[in-house]
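User: Just a sanity check before I run the rest of the batch. Below are the structure tokens for the first item. I only need the designed sequence back.
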């Protein structure tokens, strides 16, 4: 029950931040005056071109999910520990599974988030393994979802989904609820 409350609180926080940012009033509009001086264009330096693309940061438990979620967790005294990321019997070595919790207290309450890159062969094998384990498949606009049977879920989101994998083109995301997937910002 606490896991659902924490999931709901984190989701509500993200929604509140998004709505606040979208609904912020625009600053005062400057109006031209008759005695304004027309600026003259100044020469700008030529951009420096580089043949080396900017590399994304390193995949960590903190970089995988939104900064707001990390802030909420750390404010609650939570830290993250990485775990072995196995999906449908396929070990995902090019990824990370993180369990956020308060490790100073003996408890099973926390949040799981995962992301990994994977080949199409590994994705097919992992999806086949999930189906054989009883996970439910659902095609969506973002990719293919695999959700645990809600009868056996430890916690469910508002829509009745428990632990969920989302498979995209060359990657997979994981959260302990389907709604929790929106907190994963890592794109690889």
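Assistant: Here's the designed sequence for the first item:
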């Amino acid at each position: 029950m606490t896991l659902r409350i924490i999931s709901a609180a984190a989701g509500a926080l993200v929604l509140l931040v998004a709505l606040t940012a979208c609904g912020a009033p625009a600053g005062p509009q400057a109006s031209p005056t008759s005695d304004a001086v027309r600026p003259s264009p100044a020469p700008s330096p030529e951009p420096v071109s580089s043949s080396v693309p900017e590399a994304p940061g390193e995949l960590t438990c903190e970089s995988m999910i939104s900064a707001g979620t990390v802030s909420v967790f750390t404010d609650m005294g939570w830290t993250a520990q990485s775990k072995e990321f196995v999906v449908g019997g396929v070990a995902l070595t090019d990824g990370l599974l993180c369990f956020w919790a308060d490790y100073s207290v003996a408890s099973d309450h926390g949040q799981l988030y995962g992301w990994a890159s994977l080949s199409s062969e590994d994705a097919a094998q992992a999806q086949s393994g999930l189906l054989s384990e009883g996970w439910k498949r659902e095609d969506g606009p973002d990719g293919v979802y695999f959700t645990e049977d809600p009868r056996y879920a430890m916690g469910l989101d508002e829509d009745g989904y428990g632990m969920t994998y989302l498979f995209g083109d060359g990657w997979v995301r994981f959260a302990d609820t389907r709604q929790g997937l929106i907190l994963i910002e890592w794109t690889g």
